[in-house]
From TrEMBL:
It comes from the Bacteria. One of its GO terms (biological process) is DNA-templated transcription termination. Residues 1-69, 86-141 are annotated as: Disordered. Residues 30-43, 53-69 have a biased composition (Basic and acidic residues). This is Rho termination factor-like N-terminal domain-containing protein. Residues 141-169 form the Rho termination factor-like N-terminal domain.
Length: 175
């Protein structure tokens, strides 16, 4: 390729110009290296801070986990005490089987306008179904049952319902 006027202006023609260009290049390289070192130190200190924060969070998590386990053990002990008190307060006699004979239901005469002398549509209606039994305080939750199943290495415990988990845990305890 032939040189043009513009090419000769961009390239240093004398050794003095070459040396000045090299000095400028060295200064620019030194500045760049210094910037890289500063950036590296900033990352290093930032990493130290992040590791320190991570350690602090890890310690806090461990403390909270220990506190939670202690509270869970305390709750289990209290639940066991309540169950013992309930068991001690109920009579030890055997109740007759209810499968053969149905329980008597209290007979209520139908309430009407003729028997009461007032309109029952404006008063509160009574529920014909008895109230549902309250769940016992000692019944384990689904989460507790899954934890127990995991500890006893029951296969497929995460897909089981609460009733199935109870049955699987009973079977695992017997085996």
């Amino acid at each position: 390729m032939a040189r043009t006027k513009n090419d000769s202006k961009n390239t240093p023609s004398t050794s003095v110009e070459k040396k000045t260009a090299q000095k400028k290049a060295k200064k620019a390289l030194a500045k760049a290296e210094k910037s890289v070192r500063v950036a590296h130190e900033a990352v290093k200190s930032s990493s130290k801070k992040l590791r320190k924060e991570a350690r602090a969070l890890s310690e806090k998590t461990e403390k909270l986990t220990a506190k939670h386990e202690k509270a869970a053990r305390k709750l289990a002990i209290e639940s066991a005490k309540v169950a013992k008190v309930k068991a001690a307060s109920t009579p030890a006699q055997k109740l007759p089987s209810t499968a053969a004979t149905p329980l008597p239901t209290p007979a209520r005469p139908p309430v009407s306008l003729a028997t009461t002398g007032r309109d029952t549509s404006s008063t509160k209606k009574r529920s014909l179904t008895p109230p549902l039994p309250k769940p016992s305080a000692v019944a384990p939750t689904l989460i507790e049952l899954r934890r127990q199943a995991k500890e006893q290495q029951v296969r497929g415990y995460s897909r089981l319902s609460k009733a199935d988990l109870i049955a699987a845990l009973d079977a695992a305890r017997r085996a």
